[in-house]
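Q: I'm writing a short explainer about AsnC family transcriptional regulator for a general audience and would like to include a description of its predicted shape. Could you first generate the structure from this sequence?
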Amino acid sequence: MHYDYHVPNLILDDVDKTILSILHENSRVSYTDLGKEVGLSRVAVQARINNLMEKGVIEKFTAIINPAKIGIHVSAFFNVEVEPQYLEAVAEQLSEEHAVTSLYHMTGPSKLHMHGIFADNGEMERFLTEKLYPMQGVVSVDCQTLIKRYKSRMGMKL
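A: Of course. Here's the predicted structure. Afterward I'll give you a sentence or two in plain language.
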């Protein structure tokens, strides 16, 4: 399924959308194989991908790691209410924390929505009591621990 996405001054054609869809499923696909899928040469595919990267459409290529396989057993989502004047400072501090995997400013009264991963409950408790709760401007924290993952999609699927 393709959507009509475009970046200012950059219109994505059907070939770009197909390239993005294939890369989303397998970012390790070779330029040659990708070219065969979309009917372009390896060099033409590489040029399109480089252009998409330069324009910021593709932010980066990365590996998705199963946390449980490397000893990370606690995954939790947090809603952090922050006094408005401290919102940016708290967000900057949290974005530097290794345990924080994603951080968003959400609608509502100065809410940050955050995901974090921890080796165990003790590590999460130390994060909360030693780092998050003492931050200037943090008003309240609501924490929900993940029980089972049914689907997790990284990046945008076109």
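A: For your explainer, you could say: The longest helix spans residues 42-54.
Q: Perfect, that's easy to follow.
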